[in-house]
Amino acid sequence: MDQLKVKDRILENISLSVKKLQSYFAACEDETPAIRNHDRVLQRLCEHIDHALLYGLQDISSGYWVLVVHFTRREAVRQIDELQHIATNLGRSRAWLYLALSESSLESYLRLFQENQGLLQKYYFKYAQISVITI
């Protein structure tokens, strides 16, 4: 599959997951539903965003943790580093994603990525840039 089709597929999956999440909220007319980490609709959205952030990384085994530590507040980095059940940077990447979503800060982080092209070029292959920004 060529690189453009991969990007399109990743973005399509994110779009479908967002629509499912919106449908979930719409079905709860009078009450505001509580979304929890174990809710499948949220897990699928996180998986697709994770795929977008991993796509084109030069070192997938390090995840995007090597990039996000440049923008994430120190307390959050420390908190993620201290998680006992996470032993890899790939795991820290995913913990960061959940944290960014729970803090409603993912959009702000994506803007920071876009504003720092030099860092993106350091960690991502050129063909991948900038699937993470087009989310």
Automatic annotation (TrEMBL):
SUPFAM superfamilies the UniProt entry points to: RUN domain-like
PROSITE patterns named in the record: RUN (PS50826)
PANTHER family membership: PLECKSTRIN HOMOLOGY DOMAIN-CONTAINING FAMILY M MEMBER 2 (PTHR46556:SF1)
InterPro entries: PH_domain-containing_M2, Run_dom, Run_dom_sf, RUN_PLEKHM2
Start and end residues of each RUN domain: 36-135
Sequence intervals crossing the membrane: none
Name of the protein: Pleckstrin y domain-containing M member 2
Domain of life: Eukaryota
Organism lineage string: Eukaryota, Metazoa, Chordata, Craniata, Vertebrata
Pfam families per record: RUN
